[in-house]
Amino acid sequence: MKKRIDPKRMESIVLGIISFLSLLILWQTAIWITGTTRFPSPTTVIVRFFRALVEPIGPYTVIGHVAWSFSRVFVGYSLAALLGITLGLTMGWFPYVRAAFKPLFDLLRPIAPLAWIPLAILWMGIEEKSKYFLIFVASFVPFTLNAYAGSIKADRQLIGAAKMLGAKNNQLFFKIVVPSSVPQIFSGAQVALSNAWMTMLAAEMIRSSYGIGWVIIAGQQVNDMAQMIASMIAIGIVGFLLATGMRLLERRFLVWNNQGI
After folding, report:
1. Count of Cβ atoms closer than 10 Å to residue 74 Cβ
2. Quick one: average pLDDT of 161-181?
3. Is 124 exposed, middle or buried (0-12, 13-18, 19+ CB in 10 A)?
4. Which of 2, 117, 207, 252 has the smallest CB count inside 10 Å?
5. Who's near 187: CB < 8 A, 6+ residues apart?
6. pLDDT of residue 162
7. What is the rounded distance in angstroms from the CA atom of residue 182 to the CA atom of residue 171?
8. Which 3 state secondary structure label does DSSP give 60?
9. pLDDT value at residue 3
10. What residues contact residue 97 under an 8 Å CB cut-off, 6+ apart?
C-alpha cells in the first residue's frame, strides 16, 4: 500500500518552489531594467555554482571547501556541546556550581563571538586553533543556556516523589534532571549549530587558505561576483541541510516530545 503524501507538506514544497522561482524572475528583471553589467544574472551564477562542484577553486572544489569548513565546525561545536551541556546541567541542579560559575557566565554571555577575534589571534595565532576557539565560543552559550533552563524546569513533583522513595541527589540528577532536559538541549543545539556555521565563515574570511569563507574572499580579490554569490548559495544550502538534519535527529530521538516542527 502506497503511503499518501501529506497535502500540507506538498503545499509547503510547492509554495517554496514558487517563492524561489519568483526571486530568480525578480533578479533577472532588475538586471534588464537597470541594464547593469556589474551584477551577474541568475543563469551565470547557477552555471558557476555547478561548475564549482567539479572545477577546483584554489586547492579544492566547492565540495572540498565545504568539507574543510564543516570539519572546523565539528571540532568547536563538539567541544562546546561537551562543556556547555555539562556546565548548564550542573549549574541548574547543584547550588555550589551555580554560585561559582553563573556570575562569570552571565558576564561573558553578552559578548558577541566576533568580538573575541583579536584576542583569539593574539592567543592562538591565525591558524586552526583560533577558528576552533571562535566556533566554540559561538556554540557554548546556547548549549549552556538551554541545558541550564532544562535542568531548573525539571518536574519538581517527580523529584519530590523520588526523594520520598529514598533517591539520592546524584540519582535525581542522572535519572530525572538530565532526561527531562534533553528537549531543551536539542533546542540549544540547533541555535548553537547556526551560530557555529556563521562564525566559522567569519573566521575563514579573516585568514584562511581553504574553506567556503575563503572562496568568497578569493572571489572578492579578483572581482568575481558570480563566484561570491555561488559560494553564498553553497553556504545557504549547507546551513539548510544542517538545520534539517538536526530537526530530523530531534524527531527521531524525541518522538515523545514531537511538536510537529
Report:
1. 13
2. 81
3. middle
4. 2
5. 146
6. 78
7. 17
8. strand
9. 57
10. 87, 90, 91
Domains of the chain are: 62-254 (1.10.3720.10)
* Residue 215 contacts residue 58 (beta carbons within 8 Å): yes
What grid cell was written down for 216?
A: 568568497
Rounded to whole angstroms, the Cα distance separating 75 from 205 reads 18
- Dig out the grid coordinates for 178 from the structure: 538530565
Least confident of 3-12, 54-63, 78-87: 3-12
Helix runs in the chain, H state only: 7-34, 42-52, 62-93, 95-108, 117-124, 128-152, 156-164, 169-172, 178-206, 212-221, 225-253
pLDDT number for residue 208: 81
Query: What's residue 2's pLDDT?
Result: 53
Q: In the numeric block, which cell numbers belong to residue 191?
A: 541555535
The phi, psi pair for 99, rounded to 5°, reads -65, -35
Residues 156-169 have pLDDT tens digits of 778 778 778 777 77
Please report the pLDDT score of residue 112 as a whole number: 87
Distances (CA, A) of 253 to 134, 185, 214, 230: 29, 12, 36, 35
Report pLDDT digits (tens) over 186-212.
Answer: 889 999 999 999 898 888 887 788 889
Task: In whole angstroms, give the CA distance from residue 126 to residue 46.
Answer: 33
Q: Which residue has the cell 533578479?
A: 27
